[in-house]
Amino acid sequence: MIQPPIHLRRSVLYVPASNDKALAKLASLSCDAVVIDLEDAVAPSEKAAARAKLAGILGNRPASVREVVVRINALSSEWGADDLAAAITCAPDGILLPKVETPRDVLEAADMLEDSDAPQEPLLWAMIETPRAVLNIGAIAELGRDAASRLSCLVAGTNDLIAMTGVLATPDRRYLMPWLMQMVLAARAGGLDILDGVSNDFRDLDALAADCGQALAMGFDGKTLIHPAQIAPAEAAFSPSPEALADAERIVAAFALPENAGKGAIGLDGRMVELLHRAQAERLLAKAAMIAK
Ligand code: 1VU
């Protein structure tokens, strides 16, 4: 199993590149990543103007955001190639590709980055939001094993998936669940991060907290967001709890005892812990250290 590098992607906020007020707000926000959106949040008549703003936005990166990602329009659309070219010149940390349906869709963007002599970053993020993408998810995620693909993160696009399949959007997401779990499994197989889709009711923070708790239990690394009020609940849900951290410290300390040297499995507090649990504990502690920074 591949252990991907640890990124903090608990809270990932979409900001429409056409919304000057929201862009100005960024300076006062702290979250793990922002996605500057050129796609769905931007009307066709505003696409070119929004794209022209990228250099200014990236040149004035918000200080308390770890990653700045640009969501371009699909490369098959009339705007995609210009969006990608503009994004490359602005050197974001990532480029989010919408409507990815096959590995070829990712490799096409990776090839364009390679041809432009872009450095190791930007990494590529891929939206999984169509029935075809779900059916091809194993092959898409497998690209995570090939560094040349630059693929780093999958993003569930639940709004599109609901619209395109006709499933009923229920609060417990029961009809989406099989597809979301397929995405999580594929992401793990490919060594990729995976983010949950957005919660549209941005005033209902209790419902958001429930969605985040569910996404954490399903194995997601974080949540995509549409409003600043959603940042704190997402970060609370996807940060290791004090109890989990205390347990991780106990596991690491137990394996470090001289009597446990060289052992693959030990007893701790009446349960078996194995080296895989120590590896999990170390990852959790490393994540907590990144958050503390
Ligand atoms: O405090 P201020 O008045 O200065 O700022 C407002 C508002 O500008 C700001 N704000 C944001 N800032 C940064 N990023 C955002 N996404 C964002 N949203 C709002 O926060 C202050 C309070 O805002 P508000 O409560 O008055 O809300 P508004 O009516 O201004 O905005 C609501 C919407 C939903 C329109 C806004 O939050 C928004 O545009 N969100 C992002 C929509 C988007 O990007 N959609 C596409 C991605 S989702 C998708 O494609 C699914 C896969």
UniProtKB/TrEMBL annotation:
Residues 10-228 form the HpcH/HpaI aldolase/citrate lyase domain. Substrate binds at residues 71, 129. It holds the Pfam family HpcH_HpaI. Keywords: Lyase, Magnesium, Metal-binding. It comes from the Bacteria. Coiled coil: none annotated. Its cofactor is Mg(2+). GO terms for biological process: oxaloacetate metabolic process. Mg(2+) binds at residues 129, 160. One of its GO terms (molecular function) is lyase activity. The keyword RNA-binding does not apply. Belongs to the HpcH/HpaI aldolase family. This is CoA ester lyase. It comes from Pseudaminobacter soli (ex Li et al. 2025).
